[in-house]
């Protein structure tokens, strides 16, 4: 039941957040500061998410195979690889490093 | 309007669209827009598989996992909710964290609404598709027609595939066993990085990203899940404020030089 409460709250909250942006009058965007802020906020949020999902483990920070996977993704991005290759290389390298870590040598 | 096009420039490259295809001004063939949209929709839709696997692995039922993808439909929030529930968080904290992550879609909506100019009656239906990927495809389009096609095709492709692959992932979780051994937990941060990379064009963006990373990691051990990411968003107004002050100062200095 608790899980369903969480799902319902998240669904309603996230939907309203999406809708709000579409309903706010266009005039808000005509101020240059608002435009710059709207452009810069996703940069901050995506950077924070990337870092947390790479180095976060619950409430702890950790450096594990995901770090190697993300480095591979970064390299793929520098080489202008397609999106799927970027994500794929992160997954494959992470899995590879974990497999090596459990190898018997 | 120049600012309007700065955010997504280069996103096309990140998702494998040939360089410059999204920057041609004026008429752009509908088929080219559809190709852009399908490229992103298919690539990211497949990462729904990773979500399905993660969610089922976290102890959510098949129905709960699919309900999340159908009703929430914004990947970061879904991953955050499932992670918080798996860690034993109460439903309200878990939902708050997921909601905080979803707030960024409000800002995407702000930018999209001007570009798409949707009739009011249509907005409640379009809202569900206002996410990272549809924004990334829609904003660089040169015309309103192209923007609308890009938004609709990306949204539809992504919605159908994200939900299908969520279902498959949840079904396949048992077969896979330990999903971390397959490296699937690295898919989500890699998606974020691929979305972020093309945005890091100038020093302002890079400094903002660096501060956000420091805030997110620094606050992670001390605040409830989801809150550090929201607070890291403060990096954006902080950098804007500081760069505005610096510009003001240099302008004053220039004026002083002239007076001399």
Describe the structure.
The complex is a heterodimer of chains A (105) and B (260). Chain A has 105 residues and is mainly alpha-helical. Chain A has helices at residues 2-23, 32-55, 65-78, 83-101, and strands at 56-57, 60-61. Chain A is built from 4 helices and 2 strands; from the N terminus they run ααββαα. Chain A has a two-stranded antiparallel sheet with strand order 1-2. Chain B is mainly alpha-helical and 260 residues long. Chain B has 2 domains: 3-199, no CATH class; 201-260, no CATH class. Chain B contains 14 helices and no strands. The two termini of chain B are 37 Å apart.
* Total count of domains of chain B: 2
Number of strands of chain B: 0
Quaternary organization: heterodimer
Number of helices of chain A: 4
* Helical proportion of chain B, percent range: 55-70%
Proportion of strand residues of chain B: under 5%
The general outline of chain A is extended
Structural Rg of chain A? 19 Å
User: What is the radius of gyration of chain B?
Assistant: 20 Å
Q: Strand share of the residues of chain A?
A: under 5%
- N→C terminal distance of chain B: 37 Å
Write the element-wise H/E pattern of chain B from the N-terminal end onward: HHHHHHHHHHHHHH
* Unreliable residue runs of chain A: none
| Widest β-sheet, arrangement of strands of chain A | 1-2
Q: How confident overall, as mean pLDDT of chain B? A: 80
Determine the most extensive contact between two protein chains: A-B, 77 and 105 residues
Which term fits the overall shape of chain B? Answer: globular
Transmembrane segments (chain A): 6-25, 37-55, 67-100
Keywords (chain A): Membrane, Transmembrane, Transmembrane helix
Organism (chain A): Streptomyces atratus
Protein name (chain A): Branched-chain amino acid transporter AzlD
């Amino acid at each position: 039941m608790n899980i369903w409460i969480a799902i319902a709250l998240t669904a309603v909250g996230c939907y309203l957040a999406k809708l709000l942006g579409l309903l706010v009058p266009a005039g808000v965007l005509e101020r240059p500061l608002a435009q710059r802020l709207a452009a810069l906020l996703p940069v901050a949020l995506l950077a924070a998410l990337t870092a947390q999902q790479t180095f976060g483990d619950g409430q702890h920070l950790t450096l594990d195979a995901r770090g190697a996977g993300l480095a591979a993704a970064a390299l793929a991005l520098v080489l202008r690889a397609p999106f799927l290759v970027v994500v794929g290389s992160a997954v494959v390298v992470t899995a590879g490093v974990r497999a090596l870590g459990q190898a018997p040598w | 309007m120049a600012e309007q096009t700065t955010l997504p420039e280069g996103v096309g490259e990140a998702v494998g669209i040939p360089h410059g295809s999204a920057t041609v001004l004026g008429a752009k063939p509908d088929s080219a827009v559809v190709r852009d949209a399908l490229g992103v929709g298919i690539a990211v839709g497949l990462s729904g598989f990773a979500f399905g696997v993660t969610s089922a692995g976290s102890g959510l039922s098949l129905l709960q996992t699919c309900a999340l993808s159908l009703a929430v439909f914004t990947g970061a929030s879904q991953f955050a909710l499932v992670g918080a529930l798996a860690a034993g968080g109460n439903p309200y904290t878990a939902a708050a964290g997921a909601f905080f992550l979803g707030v960024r879609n409000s800002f995407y909506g702000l930018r999209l609404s001007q570009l798409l100019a949707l009739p009011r009656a249509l907005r409640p239906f379009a809202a569900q598709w206002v996410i990272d990927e549809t924004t990334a495809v829609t904003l660089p389009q040169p015309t309103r027609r192209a923007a609308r096609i890009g938004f609709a095709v990306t949204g539809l492709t992504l919605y159908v595939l994200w939900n299908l692959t969520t279902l498959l992932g949840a079904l396949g979780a048992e077969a896979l066993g330990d999903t971390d051994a397959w490296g699937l937990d690295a898919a989500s941060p890699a998606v974020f990085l691929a979305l972020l990379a093309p945005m890091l064009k100038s020093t302002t963006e890079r400094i903002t990203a660096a501060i956000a990373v420091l805030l997110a990691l620094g606050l992670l051990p001390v605040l409830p899940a989801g809150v550090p990411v929201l607070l890291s968003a403060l990096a954006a107004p902080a950098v804007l404020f500081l760069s505005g002050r610096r510009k003001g100062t240099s302008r004053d200095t220039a004026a002083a030089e002239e007076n001399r």
